[in-house]
Design goal:
The chain is α/β, with parallel strands linked by helices. The chain is built from 17 helices and 24 strands. The chain has two domains: about 1-255 and about 455-465, Aldehyde Dehydrogenase, Chain A, domain 1 (3-Layer(aba) Sandwich), CATH 3.40.605.10; about 255-440, 3-Layer(aba) Sandwich (Aldehyde Dehydrogenase, Chain A, domain 2), CATH 3.40.309.10. The strands form six sheets. Strands 3-2-12-11-10-13-14 form a seven-stranded mixed β-sheet, sandwiched between helices. It has a seven-stranded mixed β-sheet with strand order 17-20-21-16-15-22-23, with helices on both faces. It has a three-stranded mixed β-sheet with strand order 1-5-4, with helices on one face. It holds the Pfam family Aldedh.
Length: about 475
């Protein structure tokens, strides 16, 4: 069994209290993870000014070179993992074992983290909207004859991380390039990715004093969000509610992502079936950018039936089957609870499970310690139905028929939206819609992201503020 310590900014810490991680199929222990307390977190955060100065003194080009090395190590090296070393393949197998996410999904999403590490300058350019990278060294730029100056908002960036897809870790990976130390609280079942990324950074030459890996409990997570000047957190609407109005915390919660048909494309729905299926079911349907609702002015019944037919053949497969289309739940009781929520919603008139009608078998599949939820397409008569605007950790989507002229007022918060339309007027309305964060126009699934654009908040503007600056002696242009 692997022993994974905490990393307290240059000091390895092994605690008496540990969290035991087990294989979701066999129940056999896989790892023990040391836990830190709130007082330890407070002590570490109080020492971050010195660590921040140490990182700030490193030229940004040197840091970017470390990222390139870290990318290679992350993918190709055997890296320390507590008291052992893991290759990339061994890492993804352990990741799949404790989270229940299919091995093929773990591999695919871990490579997204590698991509960000390997293409960090492109990512930074997107987040800063093309600002000269050297501004991170001297704090200002006079490019184009205009002065721009920035200052950091914190000495350390805290991240309270989830246990679902390793792809989410690409969101905090650029932090060190912005010269801000990292404090990571891993998800309980997913210490593997953040620990491996930090080990890749260490091997690439990043000072250990700017890297923290602090597994802790719920109270400790709250301490991180309270004590760090800037942070990000992942969770559902209920768990994130206390931080909704806290500008220091960047919330990554429920996405409520959507496909929206325009009047001009509603009759062409069949040509978009592959796109709809990818948007709903890619990565096992567990990402916040998976579509959880499809809105159309016409043909809702046909769209629901066509999409249900396309997804109804998905089967529960072993975690290491390369043909996996859905992931198991590491905790079967979670799958059972979600299944009960859908069934309870169906008791309200005005909705039907089109997928189950076609499949003829239950949505919930159980085998041994494992449980799966099969893809589910719900045809809702209107947006008021309880299942019309829901999001779950499996391929789920409602299909709603609603007129185009009023749809953007009714969709509510939407992390990612795909507008299937060529109508310039409707495109303009979508562009102006304050409910939508990410917008794809035309046949691009909601889950199709580009790394040179911000996702659910901008890490650079979270970590830096712009200030007015006048210099008596004109500084050199950057």
């Amino acid at each position: 069994m692997i022993q994974i310590p905490a990393l307290r900014f240059g000091k390895t810490y092994t605690s008496l209290e540990k969290a035991t991680l087990v294989h979701h199929v066999t129940g056999e222990p896989v790892a023990e993870v040391s836990q830190v307390t709130g007082s330890m977190i407070a002590r570490d955060v109080s020492n971050m000014e010195r660590a921040h100065k140490e990182l700030a003194a490193i030229p940004v080009r040197d840091i970017l070179a470390m990222y390139k090395k870290a990318a290679d190590y992350f993918l190709n090296a055997a890296l320390p993992c507590g008291d052992t070393e893991l290759t990339f393949d061994q890492y993804t197998r352990n990741l799949s074992a404790t989270t229940g996410s299919a091995l093929v999904f773990c591999d695919r999403n871990a490579r997204k983290v590698h991509y960000v590490l390997d293409n960090i300058e492109e990512v930074i350019g997107g987040l800063t909207r093309g600002m000269p990278i050297e501004v991170l060294d001297q704090g200002y730029s006079t490019a184009g004859g205009r002065m721009q100056a920035f200052y950091p908002t914190t000495n350390v960036f805290g991240a309270v991380l989830p246990s679902n897809s390793p792809g989410v870790h690409s969101l905090w990976v650029p932090t060190l390039a912005f010269k801000i130390p990292l404090l990571l609280k891993p998800g309980r079942e997913e210490p593997w990715t953040p620990y491996r990324v930090l080990q890749a950074f260490l091997k690439a030459g990043v000072p250990a004093s700017v890297l923290g890996f602090l597994p802790t409990d719920h109270a400790g997570s709250a301490d991180i969000l309270r004590l760090c000047g800037r942070s990000m957190a992942f969770g559902d609407d209920r768990s994130m509610a206390p931080y909704k109005n806290d500008h220091r915390v960047e919330i990554h919660g429920t996405g409520y992502s959507k496909i929206i048909f325009g009047e001009d494309q509603a009759d062409n729905w069949e040509r978009h079936l592959d796109l709809l299926a990818e948007a709903v079911a890619a990565n096992g349907g567990r990402a916040c950018v998976n579509a959880s609702a499809i809105w159309t002015p016409r043909n809702a019944d046909a769209i629901a039936t066509g999409l249900a037919k396309k997804l109804a053949g998905a089967k529960a497969r072993p975690w290491d089957d390369p043909n996996c289309e859905i992931s198991a739940f590491a905790k079967p009781e979670v799958a059972e609870a979600i299944n009960a929520m859908v069934d309870e919603g169906l008791k309200t008139p005005g909705a039907r499970d089109v997928t189950q009608e076609l499949r003829g078998t239950p949505r919930l599949v159980k085998e041994g310690r494992c449980a799966w939820l099969l893809p589910t397409i719900i045809r809702c008569d209107g947006p008021e139905h309880p299942l019309a605007n829901k999001e779950f950790l499996f391929p789920y989507a409602s299909v709603i028929e609603y007129p185009q002229y009023d749809v953007l007022k009714r969709i509510g918060y939407t992390l990612a939206a795909t507008a299937l339309t060529d109508d310039p007027a409707f495109i303009a309305e979508c562009m102006a819609c304050a409910n939508i964060e990410r917008l794809n126009i035309g046949p691009l699934p909601t889950n199709r992201l580009t790394w040179d654009q911000p996702h659910e908040g901008n890490l650079f503007t979270h970590l830096y503020k712009q200030r007015a600056l006048q210099h008596a002696r004109k500084p050199a242009a950057v």
